[in-house]
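hi! just following up on the protien thing from before. the input was this:
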Amino acid sequence: MTQEPDAQDQPQDQPPTERTGAPAGEQEQHVVIVGPDGQPLATMPASALNLATAQDDDDDEAGERSITELVEQPAKVMRIGSMIKQLLEEVKAAPLDEASRQRLKGIHQASIAELEDGLAPELVEELDRLSLPFTEDGIPSEGELRIAQAQLVGWLEGLFHGIQTAIYAQQMAAKAQFEQMRRSLPAGPGGHGHPGQPGQPGQGGDPGVQPGDSGGMYL
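and the predicted 3d structure came back as:
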């Protein structure tokens, strides 16, 4: 009587099957990375790009909202800011009579109300804490008007500067991310790296990034 060998005693000749993100029988899609001249540099799996994008989204949700998201109507805010700055110049240039001061008081209050329509609640609360309202019945003096207008102009200039800084930081982060993905790709045929990597012939390393540059790697 022949005894059947135990399953554990059977030789393990078959290697473990490697699982990929693509379903069986389907080839995973790849994304072609091209340079500024439109020439393809390399390819990478689409799953790797999706994973990097998902990680960036998680980081954004965990942190504070970007300043660019807090300004819901940037064009409107910039128009009102330019108007307030021009009014401040007018207040400095010539003396104002009582009727002019009364009118400027109304314009100032209306400007703040319109600004708040284009801002997120966080910025609206900050602006309300900083801007002290005029008295209801009294007419402000020229000095009071200059202080109120200058304060509002300074706050808006700081807001615009923050937006510019945030946009520049986003551009640099996107460029660094694509550069990191490009450098992590395997070398092409012949064992040579992609042009632009350290120690490789061709374009050389990435030059120093200057503020305002919007170039870099893109899909």
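Residues 10-22, 214-219 have pLDDT under 50 and may be disordered.
Residues 94 and 217 are 53 Å apart (CA to CA).
cheers
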